[in-house]
Every structure is written in structure tokens, then in C-alpha cells.
Specification:
35% strand, alpha/beta, globular, Rossmann fold, single chain, four-stranded antiparallel beta sheet, binds inosinic acid, 23% helix, six-stranded mixed beta sheet, 181 residues, binds magnesium ion
Length: 181
Amino acid sequence: MPVVRGKNIDPLYTAEMIAVRNIEMAQQIAKGPNNDLLVIAVLKGSFIFAADLIRAMHTTGLAPEVEFITLSSYGTGTVSQGVRIIKDIDSDVHDRDVLLIDDILESGRTLRFAKELMLERGAKSVTIAVLLDKKVKRSTDLEADYVGFECPDYFVVGYGMDVAYAFRELPFVGIVTGDAT
Ligand code: IMP
Ligand code: MG
């Protein structure tokens, strides 16, 4: 089992599995709405997935423009949670097909906020691609249009995803299982 920063990391989705799914998802995206397509990566956790997915999209013949938005959730537990924009996109989404890319769909609050924001700004369509779908944590009716893997309810790291900014560099998705001995 890989050891990183003194922790055992149990791989859940290998780099090979992710690469195969990225191609399959890109092929699905190519069949969806993609006129004057604007990809918006929801930072930070999606940066590696987005980088790989847009290159897989290129192999299917898609030529999107690419933008970034940084969103942050606030409030925890019983406190009602909201989402705010830390850094907005610069592009106009009016009349364009938009594809939001994020790492994990959990409660759905982050992506619901982003989707509603882009629709309010006049996007023609807003579709959503996520690497991982944690369905058991959903508290909204939001669903993704393209899902890499249904994810069990573990806290996962790697492939862009972090715990306290660490483990983003791992080429696979894994679970921190404890201290290496
Ligand atoms: P939600 O769908 O608004 O609840 O939030 C999903 C976001 O929470 C994701 O984009 C991640 O940034 C973060 N997140 C949720 N679960 C995990 C995890 O297991 N590892 C790392 N980040 C996570
Ligand atoms: Mg995120």
C-alpha cells in the first residue's frame, strides 16, 4: 500500500481506471449539448480531473473554451450552509452551452449554486461532469449528467483532492487508512 507523509493510502480508483473513464465520459460529452462550449472547472479540487478530461474531450474532436471559478461552502452541521464565490469567471456565458467540472458531488450545494448562477446569467444549457458521486450525502435534488464513479461514503484524497492541502499530487484516488508503521 502506498505510504505518503507517513500515512497509508488505500487506492480506490487507480490512474488506469480513471484514464479509461475519462475517455468514456468525453465520448458522452461529445454527444451532449456542446455548441460554443465553455468548460468551467470548479476549483480547487477539480484541477487535475479537469486537465485530463478536457484533453480527453480534445481526442473526441471537442474544442471548448476553458474557465475557472473558485467556490467555497460556509457553515457546518446544523448551521444552514451557503456557497460563495471566491474568484469568478471572466467570460460571458450568455447563450452558450456550459459544462461544469468538479471533483465530487456530495450534498450538491456547490454545484447547484454554480448551475443556477450560470442559468441566471443566460447560459443556454448547463451540464455537470464529476469524477465521483457520493449519493448517500445528497441533500439537494441535483444530479450530474456525467459521472466517473459512484463513490462509497469515505473521505477520499488524491487526483486533485486534499485533506488540509495535502495529497493532491497522487495520480490515483485513495482513502487515508491510518499511520504507516
Ligand atoms: P457539496 O456537493 O456541495 O456537498 O460539496 C462537494 C465538495 O466537497 C467537493 O467539491 C469537494 O471539494 C469537497 N469534498 C467532499 N467530499 C470530499 C472528499 O472525500 N475528499 C475531498 N474533498 C471532498
Ligand atoms: Mg470542490
